[in-house]
Please model this.
Amino acid sequence: MKKLKSFLGYIWAVAAIIIALATFFGQSYFSRALVATTGITVNPRYSGGEIIKTVDHGNYKTAMHRPVFDALIGQTKEGFIQINWAPAAGLPQVISEGFDYNSDGKEDFIVTLNTATGKATLASSNPAVLDIEKSYHLKNGWAVRVLLKQP
Amino acid sequence: MNKDTAGIVPATQQPGILKTLLLCLPMMIITVIMLSNGMLPTEPARLTAFILTFVFINVIFFLMIRTGETDRWRSILFVTYAVCFVVSFIANLIEVRGSMALSPADIIEGLAPCCHIVIPMTLIPAALTKTIIFPGTIIGTKYAIVSMFVLWTGATIALGRGFCSWVCFFGGLDEGFSRLFKKARIKDVNPKWNYLPYTVLLLIVLASAVTLAPFYCQWLCPFKTVTEYPEITSVKTVIQAIIFISLFIALVMVLPALTKRRIQCSLFCPMGAFQSLTNKINVFNVRVDPEKCIKCKKCIQTCPTFSINEETIAKGKTAITCMKCGKCIDACKQNAIFYHISGTPLTGGRVEIYRRLFIYPAFIFLATMSGGFVQDAIVKTIKLIITGSMF
Model:
């Protein structure tokens, strides 16, 4: 038994060298495999969540993300929805666009964004749409987060 | 001298130059491949940096093998690694983003580089929501979240808490300051402080799970001072900046210098506490031969992480907080402390084999991790000298 334990100890110690090498040589492979296996993504509180609708305006595109109410378990009472406009070069000085985030066929809010100053205003026609949280000057465009509450 | 548990190789057992070179040959081959990414650089500044880094790293490894001392040489590379990491990281941030500050737009674009300290905070949310609560990229860059997970997993299996002395790119800062003075100005530190990192770990894991945000990164990380910090746009970000700078000065600079211990690493870092818990899956440990020990307490005084005391010596072990730096092994004149492989006999004259089997994987991590940053820092410095700009 002692000899077996000793043998296994040495095997494990030598395996540590192989593991060290594999960690670096296989980092890309293991990373891809881990993502593919777990399906892990960045939390929507940071990424804004999946894009559910895009509108092509010719010079620029609007991307509407899904409403984010994600909590550790279940959902929060308040959340946000993120709207992106890109590319920066194609954006007009003032963007004003309406959105139907709950797909009920009615416009829920209109966001007006001044791309020169970053000032964003909200006209809400749905009581669940609360306010502009913040506008963000991205590398290649703009984004706005609109605060929502659960209907 | 009893060769059963020799720590430092006595002169009579030191390998000759030729044998040392032979033992170093695998590391030379590995470092050439790792440092060059399989292709030697052609640009003069990069080639110079590559040659200097290669020679530096391999001289360190040569001396480790030749002298039998571990920590003495590891420490030089480990501190250099941390300094070069900071130089390279800040220079890259300024080159890419124009500033060390992380703006809200950078956060929603996922431009925050991920480090290993994030890992414990992300585990509960990842298990329950299948998402990572960090504003970085998942895959594809050096600092991508999953790349950091892979690195941490490999290093933890191979080295356990040795991660903190051989892989962590922050630890060398703490260690560097702990070696500034010859003698400790503060000698007695209450052992109860050893529980603080576990408290910090518990706090940040729970707080991060509840808020779905990396609490330590947002409020407690001293290393934000030398990496990136939230753009100062509000009272909240001012408070965060004050906390980061205060913790850095206290835990990474002043207290390590005064105590000659790695205070941030041993008494505050939640990642260190986490590594103590995951260390069990690893096969390497540091053992003490109580029969050889003359109770000079040299090891207790020199241990940078409060991991060895009279109680652990009596048990023939170090505490779970041991970072396997090898400082106690180097310090023990009786050769009563040694690296060990679980399951193998504690006697039988194989101590130097155990040590070599540990330092090979440990040094592969240290050399590979440090190599990139050392090269990059050298290139940036050369550019700064020649052109007046790092970019």
